[in-house]
Amino acid sequence: MTNLNFPKDFLWGGALSACQAEGAYNVDGKSLTIPEVMKFNEKNDRKVTKQIRINREMIEEAKNDPDTVKYPKRRGIDFYHTFREDLALFAEMGFKVFRYSISWARVFPNGDDAAPNEKALQFYDQVIDECLKHGMEPLITISHFDMPIVLIDKFGGWYNRKLIDLYVKYCDVLFNRYKGKVKYWITFNEINMSVKAGAKTLGIIEYDKPNFEEMLFQGLHHQFVAASRATKMAHEIDPENKIGSMVAYFTTYPYTCKPEDALQMQQDDQMKNQFFLDVLNQGEYPYYGKTYFKNKGITINIEDGDLDSIRANTADFVGMSYYNSMISSSDTEQLELTAGNVHSVYKNPHLPANEWGWQIDPVGLRYTLNLVYDRYKKPVFILENSSGFYDKLNEDGSVNDPYRIDFLSKHIEQMGLAIADGVEVLGYTMWGPIDMISSGTSEMSKRYGFIYVDQDDYGNGSMKRYRKDSFFWYQNVIQTNGEQL
Fold first, then answer.
1. Is Hydrolase a UniProt keyword of this protein (predicted)?
2. Is residue 244 part of a domain?
3. Residue 397 — φ and ψ, nearest 5°?
4. Among 22, 190, 413, 443, which one carries the catalytic annotation?
5. pLDDT per residue over 376-406, tens digit each?
6. In angstroms, rounded to a whole number, what is the distance separating the alpha carbons of residues 321 and 386?
7. Distance from C-alpha of 318 to C-alpha of 248, rounded to nearest angstrom
8. pLDDT for residue 287 is more than 90
9. Could you tell me if residue 484 is inside a domain?
10. Which of the residues 214, 384, 413, 443 is marked catalytic?
11. Which domain does 246 fall in, by range?
């Protein structure tokens, strides 16, 4: 396809997270985060996705264990020390934007410090300045799946309303420090994961409590309020700031044309995706969410001013990750589970899957972009899209990865078709442009990048970076602004 639909100022790039790439977990005053107490499981079952239940016993064990083999996200790919080399490679590909996250546990290592950790801010100064030097727009995620342990120990995570003020203080530091340098911000990465991955998003780990789900939604409410206050502050500090919401969109189709399956699909879409975006982009709790709370016996403590703040300070754009789709049915007994992003999904018989069981659905991206843009009428930013694959490093330093090129080209083509449909898409930050530690399985073997990092699941290897075939393909995609896929 020759695609002439991408705007001239389209933001092509890639995205990483601090907790998977940075390493240096105990350097320059940083404290522990939830990802750094998650162990690598070499017996990982790739047929289903299982959430690791982080409990206090696991946290205490990890605090007293300095191991970086057992806890791979502590070492990451050492981006803390290699960021200049890595950013230069992104610039060589022609990135217009680079999405990265700032570690809350670096900036406020004790959670409630009177002043931020200057060494941490100096590091992020360098990362942001290096992006600008290479002509890359920095896009910063303020909280990306790296809940500081101290905020769990001291406050019980986001269930405690005190975290609103602590988060806003953290944002205040960032917005003022990077005024005029950073324009695009994401308040919370994939905020809809809170219900499925409450430990790393909310720091709520009281699984055995009878009101656990209520606790999650209470913590989520506090994040909604925090996001609204941060958005207001960002606009006041710099009117040029653009603040985005973000979900991992779980696109779903009815298994059959039975009305019951279509109704189940609608309900799944509401409580897996739309609920979160409705609050952040429309400024109110939707009717179906209130019904869900009523039917579940969930009561949310909402203080005076909360709803006014949420209503008055909605997001400037809709951010989303898109990895795989799912199917919905009113009768799931005949369906088969397969792995997916954060949780298992029912297998669609019409779709292929990668080696981890994640289904591959490029057309679903066009479908989802139209769905989201029609509902919110705000620009959409594809903040994550890719698939994990096994890669082999050849003796000559090359990596042949036609499967990655095939996956991404088909998704980018569908994104271009969505733009042709009339959807306003700001940009595309492909997930994991350089190999890093997997968020869900903590393995290195599951590789996303255009750049191969010579490190295995146990931390062995030279850590040298190698350009894969897909590196040169994406370079050409950016150079031609999506005309040559």
1. yes
2. yes
3. 85, 5
4. 190
5. 999 999 999 999 999 999 999 999 999 999 9
6. 9
7. 11
8. yes
9. no
10. 384
11. 11-479
